[in-house]
Write a structure and sequence with these properties.
6 strands, two-stranded antiparallel sheet, 3% strand, two-stranded antiparallel ribbon
C-alpha cells in the first residue's frame, strides 16, 4: 500500500515538473530522459523530502488572526469577516474528509499571498517552481540577483528563503576558508590532543618546558582560537603527567618508609582512576578515526570528534584530574595518617561529583589505616611496619608498659578521628597488651569477640572503612567497655589489688596500731645505737616478731612476705632511727600502679609517720618515767628546803612542758591519722569502685597519694612549715633526753638519800658526789637541779618560739584541712593571745 502511494506521488511530481518546465520558452520540447530534466526532477524531490520547517510556531489560530488583521488594515473589512467565518467552519470540521494539519494549510495560504504580492512588485513567478533555472544548462542554481539580470518574462520563482542551496554554498565557502587559514586539519589536532592527554608528544602538539604545558608549535599555522582551545584541552595531559610521575616515583621507592601502606593504597586508588581515564581515551581515539563532516552533513554523521566535542568529553575528567594533581602536591611529603587526614580535608565539598570521587578515593586510601585500628582494638597487635599509625610503641620494661609503652603520635592522627576517640583506641589496645604481657591472661579475646558482635562488625579484615566513623566509634566503645572491665576484674580478683592497697595502708602508713606499737617497743632500743652497728637481718627478725605478736599474723602470707626492712644510706654520725624504714615489694602487674616513684613517696610518708610515732613514743616514755618519781618526790624530807623547792619547780616545769608537747602531738597525730589517712582512704575506695578502666584507677591512686603527701606537709609548697614541724619534733626528742637525765638524777638522789643514813661510812668512792656527805649531796643536788631547770627553760623557750612559727604558717597553707588543724591546736585561743601579747 505504501509503495503504491509513493509511486503515485512520484508520477504526480514528474507531471508537475514537466508542465512547469514546458512553459519556459527556452525549453519547449523537453525530453523526459535529458540530464536537465532529470536534474530538475531530483531537485524537486529534494525539496519535498527536506526536513526544513518554517521558523514559526505551529499555531493555526495565530496565523488566522494575522491574516484577518492584514485584511482589516487594507480596508477589506468584508473580506476579513468572510475569512473569519470560513476559518471557523474549517477549524471546527473534524472526522473523515477533514484536514489534520490545519495550521500548515493556513500557513501555505499566507505564503501564497506573500508570493503574489512579490510578483506584483516585480517578478511574475506565481506558477513556477522556485529556482528551476533551466535556461542555463551549466547553472541550475541561480541567485536572486542573477535572475533579475536574466529578465525572463516567465522566469523562475525565487523564494526569499532558500535554505538548502544557500547553506550548501556558504558551507563550501567556509570549508575553503578553513583550509586556507589552517595548515593542519582539525582531525590531526584532535589526535595530537589525545596523545598529549596521555603524556605523549604529538606531531604538532608537544610539551613546551618554557610554558610548562602542551601547546601547538609556533611554526604551525592555526588560528589563535584553535591554539587556545588546544592549550586548554592539553591541560589534562599536564595534570596526567604530574599524577603519573608521582605514582611511578612512589612505587619505585616502595617499600621505603616514606611511602608506606597508606601511600601505596593512595597510588593504587590513583591508578584505578587512571585506568578509567585510559578507557575514556580509548573510546575517544576510536571516534577520532571518523572524519569530521561539514556542518551541512551533521544530521547524518554524529559519531565523530572535534575540538569542541572533546572539551565536552573532558569536562568531568578535568575535574577529577585537577583534584588528583592537588592531592599529589599535598601528599608528597606526607605519609600514613597525616596523608589520610590531608585527603579527607578535600572531601568536604559541595559538588556531588567531587564528593563522590573523594569518597571513593578515601575508601581505598584509608583501608590500611582502618585495618590497623581494627587489629589494635580487637587483637592488641600494632601492625605498623612503616610508622604510619597514630599509635607508637616502644620497648620498655614490663612495669612501664602501661605508662610509656604506647603513646599517641599527634602528627599521624587523621582529622576524621577525634582526639577523644584516639585516646579510647589507644587505651583499648594497651589494655589487651597489659592483660597479655603483664597479667598472662587471655580472657580478653572473648571480650573482643563480644564487642565486635555487639557493634555489628566482624573481627575479620576489611570489616571497617572510611565513612563508617560511627561504626568505628561504636566498636571502640564496646571493646573498651568490655576489655577494661575484664582488666579491672583480673586486678581485683586474681591479683587482689584492693587487699594490697589496704596492706600498704596498714604497714607503711602505720594503720595497724598494735603492730606499730609492738615494733616500736622492741626495735626502739636497737635504733638508738649508731647506724653502722645495726644489722638489717636483726631488724628483719624484730619485724617478724612484731607480726607474730600482733593481729598482722592473720593477714595473707603473700602480703606479709612483701613487707621488708630497708636501711637507707647513712653516714658515720647517723642513728638507727635515721635510717630505719619499711618497704613493700610490688610485683607484676601491681608494679604498674606501685612504681618506684610511687613507692619512694610512700617511703617519705612512712618516714614522716615513723618520726611522729617516735615522738609520741618518747612522750609516753617520759610519762612512764615521770609518774613514779612524782609520787615519791615527797620522800626527800632530809634535804634542805631550797633544794626541795628547786626539785618541785623542775618537776612542775617538766610536767607543764610535757603537757604542752603532748597536746600538740596528740592533736597533730589525730589530724594525720583520721583527717588525712582515713578520709583519703575513704575517697580512694569510693573512686576505686567507680573506676571504669586502668587509667581511672591510676588517677584515683595518684590523687590518693598526692592528698596524703600534701596534707602531711610533705609537698614542695610546704617545705617551710615542714622544716618548722621537724624542729618541733627535734625539740620534743631533746626534751625526752633531758627528762630522762632529770629523773635518773632524781632517782639516784632518792637512793643515795635513803642509804646515806645507814651506810655513810661505806660510801667512800672517790669522785662520787654522794660520798661527800649530806652537805655535799645537798650542794650537788642543788647544782644539778639548777642546771636541769636552765636546760628546761631553754627547751621551753625554743619550743614556744618554734610552735608559734608553726602556728603562724598554718593559715597560709592552701589545704583547708590544715586550717582546721590550727583550730584544733588553738581551740582555747591560748596561743593567739600569747602571740598578741608578744
Amino acid at each position: 500500500m505504501e509503495d503504491d502511494d509513493q509511486q503515485k506521488t512520484s508520477d504526480l511530481l514528474q507531471e508537475l515538473v514537466l508542465r512547469l518546465v514546458s512553459q519556459n520558452p527556452q525549453t519547449p520540447n523537453l525530453d523526459l530522459n535529458s540530464p536537465a530534466f532529470l536534474k530538475t526532477l531530483r531537485y524537486a524531490f529534494r525539496i519535498l523530502s527536506s526536513r526544513l520547517t518554517p521558523s514559526v510556531a505551529p499555531d493555526a489560530t495565530a496565523i488566522a488572526e494575522s491574516l484577518k488583521r492584514r485584511l482589516a488594515t487594507q480596508g477589506k473589512s468584508s473580506d476579513a469577516l468572510a475569512f473569519a467565518d470560513l476559518y471557523t467552519k474549517f477549524a471546527s470540521k473534524t472526522g473523515p474528509g477533514s484536514v489534520n494539519n490545519k495550521w500548515a494549510l493556513v500557513y501555505l495560504l499566507k505564503i501564497v499571498s506573500d508570493d503574489r504580492k512579490s510578483a506584483i512588485n516585480g517578478l511574475d513567478s506565481s506558477i513556477l517552481l522556485p529556482n528551476l533555472g533551466l535556461g542555463d544548462a551549466g547553472n541550475g542554481i541561480l541567485r536572486g540577483g542573477e535572475a533579475k539580470k536574466k529578465d525572463w518574462s516567465n522566469g523562475v520563482l525565487l523564494v526569499s528563503k532558500d535554505p538548502e542551496n544557500l547553506r550548501d554554498i556558504a558551507f563550501r565557502e567556509y570549508a575553503t576558508l578553513v583550509k586556507e587559514e589552517n595548515e593542519v586539519t582539525e582531525e590531526v589536532l584532535v589526535r595530537d590532543v589525545l596523545y598529549a592527554c596521555q603524556g605523549i608528544d604529538g606531531k604538532y602538539v608537544k610539551f613546551n618546558s618554557e610554558i610548562d604545558g602542551y601547546a601547538v608549535q609556533d611554526s604551525v599555522k592555526v588560528p589563535r582560537a584553535t591554539r587556545i582551545m588546544v592549550r586548554m584541552l592539553s591541560e589534562l595531559g599536564w595534570l596526567f603527567r604530574k599524577v603519573k610521575s608521582f605514582i611511578t616515583e612512589s612505587m619505585d621507592r616502595f617499600p621505603a618508609e616514606e611511602v608506606g601502606t597508606v601511600g601505596q593504597a593512595f597510588c593504587a586508588a590513583l591508578q584505578d582512576e587512571l585506568s578509567d581515564y585510559y578507557k575514556l581515551l580509548a573510546v575517544l581515539e576510536a571516534q577520532a578515526m571518523n572524519p569530521i563532516p561539514l556542518v551541512s552533513e551533521s544530521a547524518s554523521s554524529s559519531n565523530y570528534l572535534s575540538l569542541r566535542r572533546l572539551s565536552v568529553w573532558f569536562a568531568e575528567p578535568m575535574v577529577k584530574m585537577r583534584l588528583m594533581a592537588v592531592l599529589v602536591d599535598k601528599c608528597k611529603v606526607l605519609r600514613g595518617g597525616a596523608m589520610a587526614g590531608a585527603i579527607h580535608l578535600h572531601a568536604q565539598h559541595g559538588d556531588p561529583l567531587v564528593h563522590e570521587f573523594m569518597m571513593s578515593l578515601l575508601r581505598c586510601v584509608c583501608s590500611p589505616l582502618f585495618e590497623m585500628v581494627r587489629s589494635w582494638v580487637l587483637e592488641g597487635e600494632l601492625e605498623d611496619t612503616f610508622g604510619e599509625f597514630f599509635i607508637v610503641g616502644q620497648p620498655v620494661k614490663v612495669d612501664l608498659l602501661w605508662r610509656e609503652g604506647y603513646k599517641l603520635h599527634p602528627g599521624m592522627l587523621p582529622s576524621f578521628i577525634s582526639p577523644s576517640l584516639a585516646q579510647r583506641i589507644l587505651r583499648t589496645g594497651k589494655s589487651i597488651n597489659f592483660l597479655r604481657v603483664c597479667c598472662d591472661d587471655h580472657g580478653w579475646a572473648d571480650a573482643a569477640s563480644e564487642a565486635a558482635a555487639a557493634s555489628g562488625t566482624t573481627t575479620r579484615r576489611g570489616g571497617l572503612g572510611y565513612g563508617e566513623t560511627d561504626a568505628l566509634e561504636h566498636l571502640v566503645t564496646e571493646a573498651a567497655k568490655r576489655i577494661d572491665k575484664h582488666l579491672l576484674d583480673v586486678l581485683y580478683k586474681r591479683y587482689k589489688f584492693k587487699e594490697h592497697c589496704l596492706a600498704i595502708k596498714r604497714y607503711l602508713l602505720l594503720g595497724q596500731g598494735d603492730f606499730v606499737q609492738y615494733l616500736m617497743d622492741i626495735v626502739g632500743p636497737k635504733l638508738s645505737e649508731p647506724a653502722n652497728n645495726i644489722s638489717s637481718f636483726e631488724l628483719a627478725g624484730f619485724l617478724e616478731a612484731a607480726i607474730r605478736a600482733s593481729n598482722a599474723q592473720y593477714d595473707d602470707r603473700d602480703m606479709l612476705d612483701r613487707l621488708r626492712v630497708k636501711m637507707m644510706p647513712h653516714g658515720t654520725g647517723d642513728r638507727g632511727w635515721d635510717v630505719f624504714s619499711l618497704e613493700y615489694e610490688a610485683r607484676v602487674p601491681l608494679d604498674t600502679v606501685f612504681t618506684e616513684s610511687v613507692l619512694s613517696r610512700y617511703l617519705r610518708v612512712f618516714n614522716f609517720l615513723w618520726k611522729l610515732k617516735r615522738v609520741e613514743h618518747a612522750l609516753i616514755g617520759i610519762w612512764k618515767t615521770m609518774k613514779p618519781n612524782c609520787i615519791t618526790s615527797n620522800s626527800f624530807v632530809k634535804l634542805q628546803t631550797s633544794v626541795k623547792l628547786q626539785l618541785l619547780s623542775a618537776l612542775r616545769r617538766c610536767q607543764v612542758l610535757w603537757n604542752e608537747m603532748n597536746h600538740f602531738v596528740t592533736n597533730f597525730q589525730y589530724y594525720i591519722m583520721f583527717e588525712v589517712l582515713e578520709v583519703s582512704w575513704s575517697n580512694f575506695s569510693r573512686e576505686m569502685e567507680a573506676a571504669k578502666d586502668l587509667d581511672d584507677l591510676l588517677a584515683a591512686h595518684e590523687k590518693y597519694l598526692n592528698a596524703i603527701v600534701a596534707k602531711s606537709l610533705l609537698g614542695e609548697q610546704s617545705q617551710t612549715i615542714s622544716k618548722s614541724l621537724f624542729v618541733l619534733f627535734e625539740l620534743i626528742l631533746r626534751f625526752r633526753s633531758h627528762a630522762d637525765r632529770l629523773y635518773e638524777g632524781i632517782h639516784e638522789l632518792q637512793i643515795r638519800t635513803k642509804e646515806s643514813g645507814r651506810e655513810r661510812n661505806k660510801m667512800q668512792e672517790s669522785g662520787s658526789w654522794i660520798s661527800e656527805g649530806r652537805k655535799g649531796l645537798t650542794q650537788r643536788a642543788g647544782e644539778f637541779l639548777q642546771s636541769m631547770s636552765q636546760d628546761m627553760d631553754s627547751i621551753a623557750k625554743e619550743y614556744t618560739t618554734s610552735l608559734d612559727a608553726f602556728l603562724s604558717l598554718l593559715p597560709l597553707q592552701q589545704c583547708v584541712d590544715l586550717k582546721f588543724l590550727f583550730f584544733r591546736l588553738d581551740f582555747t585561743e591560748f596561743y593567739s593571745r600569747l602571740h598578741s601579747k608578744g
